[in-house]
């Protein structure tokens, strides 16, 4: 009788151990399948981070009109509100205009290697124009000048050497378009000749600021050109 009880006890103990083992295995599996909290999740793999860094920013450049020098007279542009300044020129004399503008990057500290590779490739072109026309018809052009130019070329190594004065420092290039026109007798007494210029004609470049390009419209002209005998 005692032998039978001993056998039964051993059998019950074995069953108990099997049940504990099965429960432990099930719990471990459930823990493996449960997602970790974000704070405990491992960082993305190096390959994923590299792929994200390789995408250049959609907006990088800013082309901005700066000033105009007409026959030696410097004029701010875009001009303040009020009437445009008047430039008098005699018949047969030239109207010489140097139209200055700036090309700026995003803040230097925000430029990545992929930005430099893409936007500094030297493959991007823009168009700059200047004209004298008769208001109010912008298309009644007396003389047009338009040129296609390329945005600056640079490398990421160049970026590392650019001076960083502040967190918002940008790399800036200054350039100009030269415009010339010889005043003719047919425009004597015509007080509707306006001069204007603008950069990034047709908005070819997607800029960080599209409102400082100088507008190809008579309400944003630089100066009134008056031809005298």
Describe the protein in words:
Strands 3-9-8-5-6 form a five-stranded mixed sheet, with no helix packed on it. Strands 2-1-4-7 form a four-stranded antiparallel sheet, with no helix packed on it. It folds into two domains: 38 residues; 170 residues, Immunoglobulin-like. The chain contains four helices and nine strands; from the N terminus they run ααββββαββαβββ. It is α+β, with helices and mostly antiparallel strands and 229 residues long. It is elongated, with a radius of gyration of 36 Å. It is 23% helix and 34% strand. A hairpin with a 6-residue loop joins strand 5 and strand 6.
- What does the average pLDDT come to? 83
CATH class of the largest domain: Mainly Beta
Quote the CATH topology of the largest domain.
Answer: Immunoglobulin-like
Distance separating the two termini: 140 Å
Strand order of the largest sheet: 3-9-8-5-6
Order of helices and strands: HHEEEEHEEHEEE
Into which percent range does the helicity of residues fall?
Answer: 10-25%
CATH architecture of the largest domain: Sandwich
Structural class: alpha+beta
**Strand residue content:** 25-35%
Stretches where pLDDT falls below 50 for ≥5 residues?
Answer: 45-51
Tally of helical runs: 4
Question: What is the domain tally?
Answer: 2
Q: Tell me the major beta sheet.
A: 5 strands, mixed
Overall geometric form: elongated
CATH superfamily of the largest domain: Immunoglobulins
What is Rg? 36 Å
How many β-strand runs?
A: 9
């Amino acid at each position: 009788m005692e032998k039978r009880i001993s056998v039964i006890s051993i059998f019950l103990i074995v069953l108990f151990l099997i049940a504990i083992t099965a429960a432990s295995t099930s719990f471990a599996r459930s823990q493996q399948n449960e997602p970790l909290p974000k704070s405990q999740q491992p960082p993305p793999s190096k390959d994923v981070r590299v792929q994200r860094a390789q995408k250049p920013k959609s907006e990088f450049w800013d082309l901005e009109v700066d000033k105009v020098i007409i026959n030696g007279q410097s004029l701010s542009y875009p001009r303040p509100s009020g009437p445009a300044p008047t430039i008098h020129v005699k018949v047969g004399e030239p109207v010489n205009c140097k139209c200055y503008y700036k090309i700026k990057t995003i803040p230097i500290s925000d430029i990545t290697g992929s930005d430099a590779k893409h936007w500094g490739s030297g493959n991007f072109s823009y168009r700059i124009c200047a004209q004298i026309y008769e208001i109010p018809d912008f298309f009644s052009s007396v003389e047009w000048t338009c040129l296609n130019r390329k945005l600056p070329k640079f490398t990421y190594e160049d970026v590392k050497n650019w001076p960083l004065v502040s967190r918002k420092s940008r790399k800036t290039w200054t350039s100009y378009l030269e415009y010339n026109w010889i005043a003719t007798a047919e425009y004597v007494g015509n007080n509707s000749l306006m001069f204007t210029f603008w950069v990034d004609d047709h908005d070819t470049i997607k800029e960080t600021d599209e409102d400082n390009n100088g507008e190809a419209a008579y309400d944003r002209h630089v100066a009134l050109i008056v031809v005298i005998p």
